[in-house]
Amino acid sequence: MLLLSTGFTSTSMLWSQNATFSAAVLAVAGVYQLSPLKSACLAQCRGPVAFLTRHWRPGRAGAFAIGIRHGAFCVGCCWMLMTLLFVGGLMNLAWIAALTLLVLVEKLTPAGPVVSKVAGFALLAWAVATVVV
Q1: Residue 4 pLDDT > 60, yes or no?
Q2: End-to-end CA distance of the chain
Q3: Is 42 exposed, middle or buried (0-12, 13-18, 19+ CB in 10 A)?
């Protein structure tokens, strides 16, 4: 509601209408894509079987703990990409599909870590272009 009331997002597709806001979100997402934290989270999330065997604990408490731990790594992989919905539109299905495809490629293909870095540089370039143009 705050983004709507301040005029940062449109009322129909809920995408950013403020170049400075868009550039900031794109830049922060780009920097995060290049960060060691993103790489560490992606490494854990790309191999869930290895993660499960390494951190297995018996019982319900063990299952809960491993779920929380693995979930934190998965959120660490994707949370900044999800903020890009404010740039491309929360209701824009094409934008949602593009971000989903990026997450899928990052997590499931051998080139995932490289794609993550390329996406980071692309987001930084997009942020600069947003401010300049």
Answers
A1: no
A2: 28
A3: buried
Angstrom distance (rounded) from CA 70 to CA 112: 18
Q: Which residues contact 99 (CB under 8 A, 6 or more apart)?
A: 81, 82, 84, 85, 88
pLDDT recorded at residue 52: 81
Report the SS3 class of residue 10: coil
Task: Return the structure tokens found at 2.
Answer: 């705050």
Handedness of CA 107, 109, 110, 114 (dihedral sign): negative
pTM of the model: 0.81
Tell me phi and psi for residue 126, to 5 degrees.
-65, -40
Domains of the chain, residue spans:
16-124
User: Distances in Å between the alpha carbon of 101 and those of 11, 25, 74, 77, 127?
Assistant: 26, 19, 15, 14, 21
pLDDT over 70 at 1, yes or no: no
Measured CA to CA, the distance from residue 39 to residue 45 in angstroms comes to 10
